[in-house]
Amino acid sequence: MPVRRTPPKHVTIVDVARISGFSPSTVSIVLNEAPLSRYVAAKTKEHIRKTAQALGYRPDAFARSLRSRRSNTIGIMIFDISDPFCTLILRGIEHALHPTPWLPIMMDAHNDRRQFEGYLEMLMERRVEGLIVVANWLFEEGGLLGRVRSGNLPAIVVGRDLSAMGMRSVIVENEQGGYLAMQHLYELGHRQIAVIRGPAGLSDSRRRWEGIQRFVAEHGFAIDRRCVRELPDAQDASSGFEGGIALTEELLQSGSAFTALIAFDDLTALGAVRCLARAGRRVPQDCSVIGFDDVPTALLSTPGLTTIRQPMEEMGKLAAEFVLDSILNPKEPHEDTQLVRMLAPSLVLRDSTVAPGGEA
Question: Strands across the sheet with 73-78, in order?
């Protein structure tokens, strides 16, 4: 017959009191570090704590939450965890929350509006004390966070600018990023440059394009409109890679001459590299390619992808710090009254860009 295992007994304050020889109320005061604990002798505190440790006592977080009427949880809403853009942002959030008593509750909406709304409702019902939304480029800018805005829940969006809706946001300076990408290719000697923009309705895409156009205007040359393509609206994160393949193939079939290509993001750039390789065009010798984001795969690809880095870990850390500060100081005026925190992008040089006709 199978041996029946007795589940381990949950050690309670009553157990610690019985073994230590002190009353349950005294043990509770000491272990919960209540204000009255300052009146308990140091030797008594030490004895109770050592007894609790020896018995394997763990505080009942649920009971403590009921007593304090606080959940000590922060909701993390991710629009698509398979999107590599999210990885470093989540790491930054985790690093900021790890030394604190706040527990992150992470939900993945899988790029589905109804699922996002359902999960948001669940987090609100469970009384999370703050909310961080990691929004990829498929996130819809309208309406999804209406209930959060109307309440008092500290909330912030990472990766999209929702300041027009009254939501705090942490983003990269997208216009400066587009400027840096064009500047890099121009300084290498490229003048025939193709661009794959993001979807038309996406503010990030508009701002990166504005940065590209600003550099072009300052330096007195033009981008051939026949060398500009635009990613369609999509339903999953991998569509950027697929779009990069399809739109680069369009560019090649159009007969338009280009020696370099700026992609909306790294996945689109990697799709462009794949398409160029299939067509017998070497990267970077025959065509330089630059991406945007600096997701982990940009370093691991062959060739390594030159890109414009978003400081994603820092963005996640700043978002978590804002939420924590809002929870701990709900009535304190914040020094930073701006709804948008914009962080500077930077150029990361790898192997996918060289001078026209140059060797890697």
Answer: 103-108, 73-78, 130-134, 155-158, 168-172, 340-343
